[in-house]
Write a structure and sequence with these properties.
8 strands; 344 residues; Rossmann fold; N-(1-d-carboxylethyl)-l-norvaline Dehydrogenase, domain 2; alpha/beta; 12% strand
């Protein structure tokens, strides 16, 4: 790496981070960095959001009247990216690839890249890191790290206790990111299994939609525990087949993220599932949804890839029929429960 670990750690307070995305997660993480004395600027395209951050120290669209750090700044000028040392990608997975292409055109030096999006490239089914790195010239990357794990922006912005993973195949890069974000309410662990963590982050959204469906149907804790346990087995089976490590799925990016996404009403995936379950079909969801629900696209991608790999994904398959073939959730659950009996 061009910038040595020690020099970056020593000058943490002199770093400057450019956050691409003025949504809830980008804003919450920018607030963490500001708490740690790291200068941060949020880039967005919505003038109202940017003015709200700069003038009112709020991002009212996502956090109501909650006051952000006084030092937090925002801009609509993408060119300011070159004033920074580090880029934090906080955009939906569907926009991630086009954004990195633009970054490659604009930046004029090496930068540390941190990606917090969870999902896959819908065009080729790649993990996001594969295409993000491919779209950036080698001369412009000073390390790549994904920040993944059980974390809702709505709690992080309130400085509620959170643990998360800095995931990089280069441990020095992971240490830099770990040091940047860690404080007394936000603890960061390191993980080098980028494959496993990225698949876990995408797969848990599928199970979270199913969890919302169970709640919408009025099913209880037994059903939720069964779904999460068998869902985790499904996630691990697929992730290992793609080259991930089994232990990753027992950690923060696997079990941890699955728990928080399947049990919290903050989750957009859970909310989508709840609506589908309450109506016992997906019609209303497709007619009314205006949010990015990562698990929907992930379900389509994983079902296709699992069939090619011959990996058993019964929950994913049933959810696919509910989402894309207008199959009733109640009937899908009945099919799951009446499959051939077998050992766990």
């Amino acid at each position: 790496m061009a910038i040595q670990l020690i020099s970056l750690l020593e000058r943490r307070t002199n770093m400057k981070v450019f956050v691409v995305g003025s949504g809830s997660w980008g804003t919450a993480l920018a607030n963490v960095l500001n708490d740690n004395g790291i200068e941060t600027i949020i880039y967005g395209v919505n003038n109202e959001e940017i003015n709200d951050i700069n003038l009112n120290h709020k991002n009212s669209k996502f956090f109501g009247d909650l006051v952000l750090s006084d030092n937090l700044k925002a801009t609509t000028s993408f060119e300011l990216i070159n004033d920074c040392d580090c880029i934090l990608l906080a955009v939906p997975s569907s926009a991630c690839i086009n954004v990195t292409k633009r970054i490659n055109e604009v930046i004029n030096k090496k930068m540390l890249i941190i990606n917090v999006a969870k999902g896959f490239n819908p065009e080729n089914y790649h993990r996001l890191s594969v295409d993000v790195i491919a779209n950036l010239d080698e001369s412009k990357i000073n390390g790549y790290c994904a920040l993944l794990g059980p974390s809702h922006a709505e709690e992080v912005i309130l400085r509620k206790l959170t643990t998360i993973n800095a995931v990089s195949e280069n441990d020095e890069t992971a240490k830099i990111v770990q040091n940047m974000f860690s404080n007394d309410y936000f603890r960061v662990y390191r993980n080098n299994d980028l494959i496993g963590c990225e698949y876990a982050a995408g797969l848990k959204n599928i199970i979270a939609i199913a969890s919302g469906i169970l709640y919408g149907l009025g099913l209880g804790d037994n059903a939720k525990a069964s779904l999460m346990t068998r869902g985790l087995a499904e996630m691990a089976r697929y992730g290992v087949a793609k080259g991930g490590k089994i232990e990753t799925f027992m950690g923060l990016c696997g079990m941890g993220d699955l728990i928080v996404t399947c049990t919290s009403q903050y989750s957009r995936n859970w909310q989508a599932g709840y609506l589908i379950g309450k109506e016992n079909n997906s019609k209303i969801f497709w007619q009314t949804n205006t949010k990015t629900v990562e698990g929907v696209e992930a379900c389509k991608i994983i079902k296709h890839e699992a069939e090619l790999l011959n990996v058993s994904m019964p929950i994913t398959n049933e959810l696919f029929d509910v989402l894309f073939n207008n199959f009733e959730p109640k009937k899908a659950i009945k099919r799951l429960m009446n499959r051939e009996l077998k050992s766990e």
